[in-house]
Amino acid sequence: MRSAMIAILVTLCFGWAAAQEAVNPPPRPLHKVGDHWTPYEPPTELPADAQIYIIQPGDTLWALAKQFLGDPYLWPQLWEKNTYIRDAHWIYPGDPLIVGVKTEVAPSAEPTPPPTDEVGGVPPGTRPEGTAGIWEEVPTGKESTMPGGRLVTIGTEDDVYCFAYLDAEDAKPTLTVFSAEQIDYQEDFATGDIVYLSGGEAEGVKAGQEYFVSLPVRKLRHPHTKATLGLVMRQLGRLKVLCTQEHTATAEVVASCDAIPLGAWVTPYQPYPVPMALLTPPIERCDPPNDKTRGAVIYARDDAESFAADHMVLIDLGEADQAEPGTIFTIFRENKVEGAPRVLLGELAVLISSDHWATAKVLSSTGPLRVGDRIELK
Fold this sequence. Notes:
By secondary structure, this protein is mostly beta strands. The protein is about 10% helix and about 35% strand. The protein folds into 3 domains: about 1-135, no CATH class; about 160-270, Thrombin, subunit H, CATH 2.40.10; about 275-375, Thrombin, subunit H (Beta Barrel), CATH 2.40.10.
């Protein structure tokens, strides 16, 4: 009986690891850099004043943030300093990590033991050998007490990379997915599939480059002014160029949020750290409006007619309007009865911002929300 139980536990453990790898597959392909293997292109020149740490087996950005920054929830700050790391779930032993600025500190009497898998929340023995990373996603609401409020991670990588963005109304693709290796058997493509791009060496495409894949949804009009704001683009995934020809390129889909059809648009990849925000107590119903920047929710994921907490939306404010990543807004609705107080509905936080639009995640809601609801800078 005991042997059977052990076998079951081992099976479950490895099944869990396989499931995690399926959700967040490791970047590919691996290549040798110096004395170690990595899928990334670590920098060969590092700032002279930077404090450098060499990643060890079992390390995670979560544990290293606790070790060097004093708080594991600050791991996005480490990721932001090391933009060559494409996927924060996967870091590789031997790669250099900028962890801060050099300071004159006497060496510790005892070396700091390397963080264990338990620190990152992964059971021992379930992580593939030679890899490390943040396996679990930090859920909304995880917090660390800070002066004046609570420091929280306000989203996940899926929120950042698998939602939507706003392009120009007359935008046209410069690069598309025009064919695929399995075109005789598939209409749509996903992680691991080989696809062909409509541009190559002559168009500036090079092996090793990464690109976002997206698809136009519809033109977007402002819910109040009816002015055309642009073209909603749904994010489908990311691909990496394996090799190029004169006017075509061969690429592998390295991450997919949704099925990728022929004709999907291809644009240069840019990493976006998952932002953090300092949460303070919400505005109370008896508090007067603060007369700060105001805007509106202009689009909801999947064109939802009503939505609530954890839903992704677009707003009509951007960096030029003080809506930067991590900024918190109060959601409210004007009262149907003229002269009556406004109705407070919840809060949202900005994840990615352009000049005059941004993606945001609803942090809390007291009832159903809808496109057109107003927002006010907190």
